[in-house]
Design goal:
- 25% of the residues lie in helices and 40% in strands.
- With 93 residues, the chain is of the alpha+beta class.
- The protein has one domain (5-87): 2-Layer Sandwich (Alpha-Beta Plaits), CATH 3.30.70.100.
- Strands 4-1-3-2-5 form a 5-stranded mixed sheet, covered by helices on one side.
- A hairpin with a 5-residue loop joins strand 2 (34-39) and strand 3.
- The radius of gyration is 12 Å and the shape is globular.
- The chain starts with a strand and ends with a strand.
């Protein structure tokens, strides 16, 4: 599957301690995307996802609410250049 889109997501709200990273990885893998997700020290979650535009857009839509226990107050989406550096979607520490 060709990666033609890359986004960096910054997700704010109650997004740590609610399985956001694991759920993002599961959703991204289901969509066939590549990249990573991690917690940030300010309490937010950051993710980078690459893949076909429609699949990346589906992940962005999902991230607007996230897993059941999460509360997303703000989602920032930044378009980036595709790197092709990833061979999976991983949770980073």
């Amino acid at each position: 599957m060709k990666s033609d889109t890359r986004v960096r997501l910054e997700i704010f709200g109650r997004v740590q301690g609610v399985f956001f990273r694991a759920s993002t990885r599961k959703q991204a893998t289901k969509l066939g995307l590549f990249g990573w997700v991690r917690n940030r020290s300010d309490g937010s979650v950051e993710a980078v996802a690459e893949g076909p535009r429609e699949k990346v857009e589906a992940l962005v839509e999902w991230a607007k609410s996230g897993p059941k226990l999460a509360r997303v107050d703000n989602l920032e989406v930044h378009q980036e250049e595709v790197s092709g550096d990833f061979d999976e979607f991983e949770v980073r520490r």
